[in-house]
Amino acid sequence: MKRNTILKRLLSLFITSLFITSSLLTPSLLHAVGSSGIYQHSVALSGYISAETGKAPTAYLWIPDGCKQVQAVVFAQQNMTEEMLFRNPQFRQKMAQHSTALLWVAPWFSQNWDPSTGSQQIFEEMMTAIAYQSSHLEIATAPIIPFGHSAQATFPWNFAAWNPGRTLCIISFHGDAPRTNLCGYGTANVEWGRTRNIDGIPGLMIEGEYEWWEARVRPALAFRMMYPQSCISFLCDAGSGHFEITPETADYIALFIHKAMEQRLQPDGTLKPLLPQDGWLACRYNPDSQPSDGDGARDDIFRIARRPSPAPYADYQGDPHDAFWYFDREMAELTESRYAETLGKLSRPFDKPSYTISADGQTVSVSVPKGVRVEVVSGPLRLHSSSATRFTFKVYPYECGLDNPKRSFTAWLIAIRDGDSQYKRAVQPIEIKLPNPLLK
Fold first, then answer.
1. Angle at Cα 258 formed by Cα 94 and Cα 60, nearest 5°?
2. H/E element holding 314?
3. What is the DSSP letter of 109?
4. What pLDDT shows up at residue 401?
5. Packing angle, helices 119-134 and 3-25, rounded to 10
6. Cα 438 to chain center, whole Å?
7. What percent of the chain has pLDDT over 70?
């Protein structure tokens, strides 16, 4: 056989082998990247059909420009503020400093991370697929930072319980305690069994000041006592409600991730378990108003009065049963400073803004009082123009697509009045119902 013929056959076999290997390793057809301009790569999931769309969800991946080796991946599923965080340029800049990628799945495929439903296998196949699609093969086994808001706030804890060797840290945003009985999605939690735990994995629960509910916080304190080797941090998002991520809180989350990488990530890519005794303790947040769960507790019990100072674990002078764990002095004192921002300040609510939708359904105009601004939380809207009392948004076909009755035609905005020396920051969520179809 001639040399050229042999080379052609070998090349044909190589291409065929590459195609077959890629098909096996990538369990889905590749999708075009969405139109937000954020994500460079995407794949459709295999093994799951969304009840919202009747088709497979899509995973969208952002990798920092110039990143040669992804060190970790923040993994979130579509709910609301996940979009707001990933759109934040400052947050992405901080993730770029640590070679951390962002992975967003829309619509979601698991709210509780119950492995009996196949969530674990779907995840693993998704990570392999997006790793090969992006040519960053290390993503297939990279450390994960599960992040979820509200109805998605339970899954990060359960993900970590089933992936303890792979979870860098856990972030439950405006959501849930580990093993809570008040899951954001409204049904029962997943049972971990007798031996499963998240010991040594730093976890962060965040609850907004304006959504405060004692019954959500108590299980987090109880979990610390039940699992004394757990590393559970807590932040009250002072001056914030349920529907947003403030720049200050995005920076706090980024610092939490940085601390986890600094203290846990080993040169060989493995994760070092943390000992809570090596960290700091700080007193839990005590709201300076009556708690909202109607338990009849006296108002003065919950006022911030004489708080014990944050201190190294062994030196803490307060009640450890009423405290949360933090990486170090910097993280504990930053938390205290966030609480001090609203201490003793007055509330200054404002009327809910009104909005109009243009006849063609392509423009939304929001009228607000002077001193109030409007931002997009989630949905197919982008800011087009603004004045002192009016913000105008335009429809665009974002990653969710135009075939999801639940997501494609609903946008959430947030109206914000910043605080000052006398008043707390005030917020108002705005739900926008858009016409169907949107784009003609």
1. 55
2. none
3. S
4. 78
5. 140
6. 28
7. 87
Domains annotated on the chain, with CATH: 34-340 (3.40.50.1820), 354-433 (2.60.40)
| Residue given tokens 């962060």 in the structure block | 204
In the block, tokens 């940085």 appear at 258
The residues, ordered by sequence, that sit 6+ positions from 373 with a Cβ below 8 Å of its Cβ are 386, 391, 415, 416
Q: Tokens 């509910």 correspond to what residue?
A: 213
Q: Which pLDDT band holds residue 194 (cuts at 50, 70, 90)?
A: confident
Residue 183: both structure tokens together = 């899951």
Task: Tell me the helices (H) and strands (E) count for the chain, helix number first.
Answer: 8, 18
Q: Cα separation of 428 and 353, whole Å?
A: 8
* CA atoms of 328 and 279, how far apart (whole Å): 5
389-393 contacts at long range (C-beta below 8 A, 24 or more positions apart): 390/365, 390/366, 391/365, 391/366, 392/363, 392/364, 392/365, 392/366, 393/363, 393/364, 393/365, 393/366
